C-alpha cells in the first residue's frame, strides 16, 4: 500500500471513529427521525429474499472433468519456474502464453514444485519432469527426494519415483537434469555433497543406477549416450554409458579455465551441440558436446570495446533461439563480484562469426532471460521487480509486462514444446 492510499485509509478510519463517538454522545429520542430511519433500515435488511422464479436454473456442474491442453504447444508458450524463494514450499511451474494480451487467458495451468525443485520438459515425449523434496513434518523430519513424471496435456502426475540419492538442491537452473537425444534416458544431478547423477530409463520406467562424478557436477547431454559434468578444477568429466544406461567408462577433459582467476558461469547456451559458457570477465568458452566425449574448442570475447566495464551477469543469463543466435545478459558496470547482479542489456551474437548483431535494452533491469521458439521469438526477461518483460527480439520493443500471475520469484523461464 503506497503512502497516498495509506493516508486516505487512515483519514477514513479517523472519520468513522469520530462519527461513532459523536453518535454515542448524542441523545436521540425514540420518536426521532433518526431512530425511525434506523429501525426501517434494520427491518429492510432482515427481510427474507424471495427467489425470482423467472430466472433459469443453473446447470448441474459435472465433476471430475479434466480439460486437455494441445499435444503440441504454441511457440509463444513458456514454463515459468516460480521458485517461491521466500518460503520454498510453495514453488510452482506455471505454463503461460507469453504473447497473450488478456490476463484471464494467459495462464494455461500449473503444477507444484517443492523445495526449489528441478524441472525439465521433453520435446518428443508427451511429458515433463519435476524432481522435488519433502520433509516428514513440513520443515523438519526425514527428507525424501522424488522424481514426478507429468502428462503435459492434463498436467496430471502419471508416476512418482523415490530417488535413492540426494538430488542437487540449488538455485533453479536448466542443467540440473538432462535427457539423451532420443529421450530414452533421464539424467538427474545429485549432490550430498558427494557428486553423482542418477540414470532413469523412461521406457522401462525404472532407475538404472547412480554414477559417481567426484568433484564434478551438473548434467550436459553429450553424443547419444554420454553425460558431461563440470569439475571444480576447471576440467570436464564425460561419462560414457552402455546401451542400457549403465556406466561404460569416464574420461576427463583438461582444465580450460582457472576457477580462482578466470571463473565461468555453469549456465551455457547449447547450439547445435556446442555449449557456450560465458566467463565472469566477458570471454566465451566453446565446448563441443556432439561427440561421445566432450571436446574443448577455445574461447573468444563478448566485449571488444577497450576501456569498458561490460560483463555478463544474472541467474539464467544465456539462451538461444531456433535460428542459432546466442543471447546473454550484460552489465555496463561490471566488477569482481557483479556476476549475480544481472544487467541493463541483452546482447545477441552470431556464434559462427562471433559478432554481436544486436543489443536490446532491458526496460526494468534483467535478472534472468529466455527466448521463445519460432522464427519470430520473443525475449522474456525476469526483471528487477520480479515481473516478466516480453520484448520483440528483433526490434527491442516492449510488447507487454506480465505480472499478477502468482509471481514471487520467477527466476527461470523455459521453452514449452
Integer average pLDDT: 90
For the termini, the CA-CA separation is 39 Å
* SS-derived structural category: mainly beta
Percent of residues in helices: under 10%
Shape: globular
Q: Let me know the number of strands.
A: 29
Radius of gyration: 28 Å
Parts with pLDDT < 50 across at least 5 consecutive residues: 1-39
Taken as a percent bin, the fraction of beta residues is 35-45%
Q: Tell me about the biggest sheet?
A: 5 strands, antiparallel
Number of helices: 3
Keywords:
29 strands; globular; disordered N terminus; 4-stranded antiparallel sheet; 417 residues; single chain; 10% helix; mainly beta; 5-stranded antiparallel sheet
How would you describe this structure to a colleague?
With 417 residues, the chain is mainly beta. Helix content is 10%, strand content 42%. It contains three helices and 29 strands. It has helices at 3-25, 33-45, 103-106, and strands at 77-82, 92-97, 107-112, 118-121, 127-135, 143-151, 157-162, 177-179, 185-191, 195-201, 206-212, 216-222, 226-231, 236-241, 247-253, 269-271, 274-278, 283-288, 295-301, 311-312, 318-320, 325-331, 343-350, 355-366, 368-371, 378-382, 388-392, 398-402, 410-415. Strands 20, 21, 22, 23 and 24 form a five-stranded antiparallel beta sheet that branches. Strands 3-2-1-29 form a four-stranded antiparallel beta sheet. Strands 4-5-6-7 form a four-stranded antiparallel beta sheet, with no helix packed on it. Strand 13 and strand 14 (236-241) form a beta hairpin. The radius of gyration is 28 Å and the shape is globular. It starts with a helix and ends with a strand.
